[in-house]
């Protein structure tokens, strides 16, 4: 199974940028942006920048490795490399890719959450391993993800 990356993205107001996902036939859930490593990606960090641009139209700075999560998924082990980063800009007009081209993939609504454990634990955040990591570390994120100078 191809590895993937996730971006724990903080805005200027120290809020976490997430997707509220409404997918036909699935329970409502939240997720942070990210995706699979593609053959043309030069590095995990390159994958992160590409995915954030595709999904949010976002440019980020202060990319910081936070953790690597591995968990059972569809009979295999899925590995996700989680990076913290700071939002520099976000232009929804720049979003592109299968998320936006295929309406059967559901709705991606951007929300911004306060850095409070209850903001995470009160939502069905997937993958669950990431939700557990965020619930434990949410208040530490501003210290872990330094601002660019």
From TrEMBL:
Signal peptide: none annotated. It comes from the Bacteria. Transmembrane segments: none annotated. This is 8-oxo-dGTP pyrophosphatase MutT (NUDIX family). Belongs to the Nudix hydrolase family. Keywords: Hydrolase. Pfam families: NUDIX. InterPro entries: Nudix_hydrolase (IPR020476), NUDIX_hydrolase-like_dom_sf (IPR015797), NUDIX_hydrolase_dom (IPR000086). Residues 1-146 form the Nudix hydrolase domain.
């Amino acid at each position: 199974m191809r590895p993937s990356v996730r971006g724990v993205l903080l805005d200027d107001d120290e809020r976490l940028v997430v997707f509220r996902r409404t997918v036909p036939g699935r329970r409502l859930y939240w997720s942070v942006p990210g995706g699979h490593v593609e053959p043309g990606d030069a590095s995990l960090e390159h994958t992160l920048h590409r995915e954030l641009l595709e999904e949010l139209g976002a440019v980020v700075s202060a990319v910081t490795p936070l953790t690597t999560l591995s968990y059972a998924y569809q009979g295999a082990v899925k590995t996700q490399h989680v990076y913290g980063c700071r939002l520099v800009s976000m232009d929804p007009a720049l979003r592109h890719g299968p998320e936006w081209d295929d309406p059967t993939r559901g709705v991606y609504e951007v929300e911004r959450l306060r850095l409070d454990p209850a903001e995470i634990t009160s939502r069905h955040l997937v993958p669950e391993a990431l939700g557990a990591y965020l619930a434990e570390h949410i208040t530490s994120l501003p210290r872990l993800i330094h601002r660019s100078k």
